[in-house]
Amino acid sequence: PLRADARQALVDEVHHAALAGAQAARLGARVELPRIPPPVTRPAAEVALENATAGCVHEAFAALEAAWQAGHAADPALRAVLGRVAADEARHAALSARIHAWLLPRLCPADQARVEAARVAAVRRLRATLARRPAVAVDPRPAHGPALQLWAALYG
Prior knowledge:
Order of helices and strands: HHHHH
Helix content: over 70%
Radius of gyration: 17 Å
Strand content: under 5%
Number of strands: 0
Number of helices: 5
Distance between the termini: 31 Å
C-alpha cells in the first residue's frame, strides 16, 4: 500500500496545484501548473532523508497550517479548498510517517543517525522561519504567534 498511497499523494499534489491555480485565476492572477519530472531511482538513505524533512516535518506542518487557514479564511470557496488540502496533507504526513517507520530500520546506523539529525534540524529551521513571520498576518498564512502555536502543537 505504500506505493499506491505515494502515487495517490502525487495525484493529490497535482490537484492542489490546480485548485490553487483556479483560486488565483478567480482573483485575477495567471498561474502555470507545475511540471512533474520523471521518477528516478535514488539511494534509500537519500529517500529517507528527504522523507524525514519534507514529509515528516513539512507535510505535517502544512496539514495543520492548511486546517488553520481553512478555519480563518473569509472566502467560502477558499475555505473549502483549504479544507480539502488540509485533509490531503494530513494523509501525506501520515504516509511519510509510515515510510519513515518502514525505511529507517533498513538503513545502516550512520545513515539512520544522519536522517534523524536532518529531521531534528528541519523542525528547528521551521520554527525559526515561523518566528520571522510578521506579527500580523499579511497573507492567508497565520502570523508568527499562531504559527508558533501550531508548531508547538506538533513538536512541543
